[in-house]
Design goal:
The complex is a heterodimer of chains A (72) and B (364). Chain A is an alpha+beta fold. Chain A has helices at residues 14-25, 38-50; strands at 3-6, 30-35, 53-61, 64-71. Chain A has a single domain (3-71), classed as TusA-like domain (Translation Initiation Factor IF3, 2-Layer Sandwich), CATH 3.30.110. Chain A has two helices and four strands; from the N terminus they run βαβαββ. In chain A, strands 1-2-4-3 form a four-stranded mixed sheet, with helices on one face. In chain A, helix 1 runs parallel beside helix 2 (38-50). Chain B has 364 residues and is an all-alpha fold. Chain B has one domain (2-358). Chain B is globular, with a radius of gyration of 19 Å. Classes of the chains: A alpha+beta (72), B mainly alpha (364). Chains A and B meet through helix 1 and helix 2 of A and strand 2 and helix 10 of B.
């Protein structure tokens, strides 16, 4: 069970800040980020990849997205 | 459609969007819009406030079809790509106040970030101070964001709730059709029109509307945002949105050179003043307010088009702020800052600092 970052309903750039904070704690090598807009999905994916992480899953869920990211 | 979907979120997608906006803005000026004001979200919302009589500054009254197009173009794109998501409820009254002071700051400088870019691309040196102020204000906002500043979460809402703001825009457009400008008259039905000044300078209705729709469509797809451009660089050293903003300036500059609209200098620039401290501070206030609200004035219109009711409230705050600006003598003119511009900027900073300092969640 990986750590979940719930960024649903938050406006720019908070989803990215939350995801990066979780990445930078270094506790997990795998995270799930919940977002509610395509913009946040793109921004979080872009930020994760810039940190050397990869997108391993993307599910549409409850009108939003569940993004699975993993350290490469 | 899938291919197009990916295209816009790429580096070239955002650069293309910025370039198209830059070219179209310069051409809108060529076709009648005011100097270095092919597109100015703040100025055009101010003109709309004048057209419906919220303020009575005679030189800035016109229902700008570009603004209507921005919202409706974004609405169309959002529906086409299944991104229309009615959502609202993230501290709306705070967003209203941020919108009002963003407008008050922008009208001290005489332009939003879009126009700051277009003024620079037209050779207006004073724009440099505005852009520096914009960066300063966004930097301050980024500090708050880093410290956990948040206006809280939105909730999803009814489809019809997401339609309320686009319907307001359609209503304005209907008014514009029902009460078109009458030669030599400052009023047509319920709408006010300018007989001179920037409000009297505009491209043809169809041209303005189509450009607005195109820009609204591509900006919704690419998430173009002039505030985010600076903010993401400060916060994350990301240059994605920034490349779009730079492309806008470059494309407008080249287009201006080609059509003979590039006039370098400081004095005598169209709809601008040279009180540089206030160019800087006005735009710094606006930048801070945009950063705290999560988007530049253009982005707020595109968000409102895809169903974001909080962005819509921010826009309504800006339109109201424009009314205060002109009714209270806060707005600048080519002669310099307004009689009450200085206290308004100071109060604006105090309000934004109050919001930024007190509305934060513990970073977990």
């Amino acid at each position: 069970m990986s750590t979940i970052v719930d960024a649903r309903g938050l406006s720019c750039p908070q989803p990215v800040i939350l995801a990066l904070n979780a990445i930078r704690t270094g506790k997990d090598s795998e995270l799930e980020v919940l977002v509610d807009t395509s913009t946040s999905r793109e921004n979080v994916s872009r930020a994760a990849m810039s940190q050397g992480w990869e997108i391993v899953s993307l599910k549409e869920e409850g009108g939003g997205f569940r993004i699975g990211i993993r350290k490469k | 459609m899938e291919g197009l979907k990916n295209l816009f979120s790429t580096r070239w997608g955002i650069i293309g969007t910025g370039a198209v906006i830059g070219v179209l803005a310069a051409l809108l000026q060529k076709m009648g819009n005011p100097g270095n004001m092919g597109v100015c979200v703040a100025c055009f919302e101010r003109d709309i406030a004048g057209a419906i009589g919220l303020h009575r500054a005679a030189v800035v009254q016109y229902v700008r079809p570009e603004i209507i197009g921005f919202v409706l173009g974004s609405l169309v794109a959002a529906y086409l790509f299944r991104e229309f998501r009615p959502r609202m409820g993230s501290a709306p009254v705070v967003r209203f106040v941020l919108g009002a002071f963003a407008m008050i700051g922008a009208l001290v400088f005489l332009g939003c970030p879009w126009r700051a870019a277009l003024r620079l691309a037209g050779g207006d040196g004073s724009a440099i101070f505005g852009i520096l102020g914009l960066i300063g204000g966004i930097w301050l906002g980024a500090l708050f964001l880093r410290g956990g500043y948040s206006l809280g979460r939105t909730q999803s809402s009814y489809t019809s709730a997401g339609w309320v703001f686009p319907l307001i825009m359609i209503g304005l457009l209907v008014l514009r059709f029902v009460f078109p400008p009458i030669e030599g008259q400052d009023k047509s039905g319920v709408l006010f029109y300018s007989l001179k000044g920037p409000g009297a300078m505009h491209a043809a209705l169809a041209v303005s509307l189509v450009v607005g729709l195109v820009v609204g469509f591509i900006a919704q797809r690419s998430r173009f945002c002039t505030m985010g451009a600076v903010r993401d660089f400060i916060l994350f050293r990301q240059t994605h949105l920034l490349s779009g903003f730079v492309a806008l300036i470059a494309a407008a500059f080249v287009t201006n050179l080609i059509v003979g609209q590039f006039h370098p200098g400081f004095a005598g620039q169209p709809v601008a003043h040279t009180m540089q401290l206030w160019n800087f501070l006005g735009m710094a206030l606006a930048g801070l307010a945009f950063a705290l609200a999560g988007g530049c004035p253009g982005r707020q219109l595109f968000l409102a088009g895809e169903g974001d009711g909080d962005a819509a409230v921010f826009v309504l705050g800006m339109i109201t702020g424009a009314a205060f600006s002109h009714n209270f003598g806060l707005a600048s003119s080519p002669a310099g800052i307004g009689p009450n511009g200085i206290p308004a900027v100071i109060i604006g900073f105090a309000v934004c600092l109050f919001i930024g300092l007190t509305m934060r969640q513990k970073v977990s």
